[in-house]
């Protein structure tokens, strides 16, 4: 397992993405999987940056592990911000016209659709969001 810890700021999304992509590329992951992972990083790390420590800032750790190579990627986001389980929110109704939809929730919905498993736990004062993707 490899990990990176950065201050939870929007400008660090690129740092996290580059770190994860270097691991994906070294393991021969497809461009499609890499794009889906990039979208997930943008959404999850972005939400941590915007909401976890408001109005202050703090750190977030991203762990990357490829198990049973090349079978499964596990991407874990860990922060010590405000406890928040994004999986508790109701999925948006994507059948409605865009003008009739409520704001919010589409990003985590996309992450759940693109990943094979998404789980959340709050343990030891930390938000832990795990994404699993079959490769």
From TrEMBL:
- Gene Ontology MF terms: ATP binding; protein serine/threonine kinase activity
Where in the numbering of this chain does the Histidine kinase/HSP90-like ATPase domain appear?
A: 8-133
Return the EC number: 2.7.11.1
**Which CDD domains has this protein been placed in?**
HATPase_RsbW-like (cd16936)
Pfam families recorded: HATPase_c_2 (PF13581)
Q: What class of enzyme is it?
A: transferase
Which of UniProt's keywords are assigned here?
A: ATP-binding, Kinase, Nucleotide-binding, Transferase
Name it.
Answer: ATP-binding protein
Organism, scientific name: Blautia wexlerae
Gene transcribed to yield this protein: btrW
């Amino acid at each position: 397992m490899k990990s990176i810890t950065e201050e939870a700021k929007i400008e660090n999304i690129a740092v996290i993405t580059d770190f994860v992509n270097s691991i994906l590329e070294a393991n021969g992951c497809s461009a499609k999987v890499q794009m889906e992972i990039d979208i997930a990083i943008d959404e999850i790390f972005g939400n941590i940056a915007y909401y976890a420590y408001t109005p202050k800032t703090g750190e977030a750790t991203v762990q990357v592990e490829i198990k049973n190579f090349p079978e499964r990627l596990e991407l874990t986001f860990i922060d010590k911000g405000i406890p928040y389980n994004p999986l508790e929110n109701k999925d948006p109704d994507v059948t409605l016209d865009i003008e009739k939809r409520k704001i919010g929730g589409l990003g985590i919905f996309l992450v759940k659709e693109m990943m094979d498993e998404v789980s959340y736990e709050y343990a030891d004062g930390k938000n832990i969001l795990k994404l699993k993707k079959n490769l």
